[in-house]
Amino acid sequence: MSKSALITGILGQDGPYLADFLLRKGYKVYGLIRRYSNPNFSNLDYLNVTNKVDYVEGDMNDEASLLNLIRGLHPDEVYNLAAQSFVKASFEQAKLTTEVNSLGPLYLLNAIKFFSPTTKFYQASTSEMFGLQHTNGYQDEKTPFHPRSPYGVSKVYAYWITVNYRESYGLFTCNGILFNHESPIRGIQFVTRKITDGVAKIKLGLVKELRLGNLEAKRDWGFADDYVEAMYLMMQQKNPDDYVIGTGESHSVREFVEIAFKSIGIADWKKYVVIDPQFKRPAEVPNLKAKADKARKNLGWKPKVAFDELVEIMVKADLKRYGSR
After folding, report:
1. d(CA 41, CA 186)
2. Dihedral sign for Cα atoms in the order 164, 14, 151, 70
3. Which residues belong to the active site?
4. How far apart are CA 195 and CA 254, in angstroms?
5. Mean pLDDT over all residues of the chain?
6. What's the pTM?
7. Using CA atoms, how far apart are residues 207 and 257, in angstroms rounded to an integer?
């Protein structure tokens, strides 16, 4: 009998990649969607999985809907990928960010506790929880949290409530502390996709400039398709645990820009980039770099796509979107 999995955040970036991965493993995949008048399935369409997922209605802010959902489905696994995940917006919409990112996981955990205690639960945690903290220049599972945004703060609560339900009720719950991971279906508001989309438009003569904020911020960037495999592997272990997932490399926004422009044959990228203060955060996280030794040892996981390759994949995809082959 095939396993079943419920994915929240199915319309985002990671949801379609995870759905595709699980479907290839033979899972029956349920995708949680809110009652939209016109839901956007473009990310699922990109991976050709739209018609292979069973959609169920619910809302991360409505505990009753999640209780009823888990009671009816009894899924083998729940992957909570739903979030207000745009860091800049979290400063402007702190309450919404907290409700979705903190209380949503709590509601799901309660539903599992009451109605389906054998269901395994995965919480999408984030490197933004670390903020300013590091150990010898990197972050791992033992690094303390010091979030620098309402988004990071909300995710710290979700992390600890996931740990608490594991320790208090014996549930199989785990946190994947994923560092930045990107793809051609990354939201256009995120800096990586903003760069690749802007570079594609410049190449095709559609715009003349790319407006950005802090070019010196450094991140550990990987490919989303690699990272959903790590989520799956965490859920297949005998005992639940929490894992840092990342490449172990740190690159600046400036480097991302340079490689993106280089991929379209433009060396002097500075002629096209304008620094705009409106895109800078109130509190910046200067440098994130994962030490994912635990995941490599216990899960046998490692990234497959290199940084340069990731940037080029995204630029090519955006060029294709605008009709350039």
Report:
1. 14
2. negative
3. 126, 128, 151
4. 10
5. 94
6. 0.95
7. 16
